[in-house]
Amino acid sequence: xxxxxxxxxxxxxxxxxTFTSPRTRHVTLKLxxxxxxxxxxxxxxxxxxxxxxxxxxxxxxxxxxxDDDRGRAVIWxxxxxxxxxxxxxxxxxxxxxxxxxxxxxxxxxxxxxxGENGHWHSWGFSMQLAGTCLKCNRTxxxxxxxxxxxxxxxxxxxxxxx
Length: 162
Fold this sequence. Notes:
Elements: E1 15-20, E2 27-33, E3 46-51, E4 60-67, E5 72-75, E6 88-89, E7 92-93, H1 100-114, E8 126-129, E9 131-132, E10 139-140, H2 143-148, H3 152-157
Antiparallel strand pairs: 1-2, 1-8, 2-3, 3-4, 4-5, 6-7, 9-10
């Protein structure tokens, strides 16, 4: 890289994001940059991972690359629908034939980039940046825990209702 090359800040920062929808409780995605100790071809790439298990620290599965220049996720082939999309909504292809992963990542990307002005917000979707528990410092990904600032286990130990 040239010494005078301009370094553009990312449009979307690394982090863990939880979004809620009218039909599902919540979905959590993580955006992270691959570091030096990985495959050399992957270093510097930004990965979108979907929380797929009960452990919100480790149960993430990579599903897409994030393209900051275009402001969108490039879904990995194994997570794409076999069907073609049928239209555009706010710059996103939209169709009932989207795979679950495609839909979740598109909603998340729209909420991250456009916030309250996004298409999905008007449909009742909302998003929160994950926090950490004030008692044990574990990652909080459920909407209730993020708002409270305390995870479910610590909340129970403090005498809170489950």
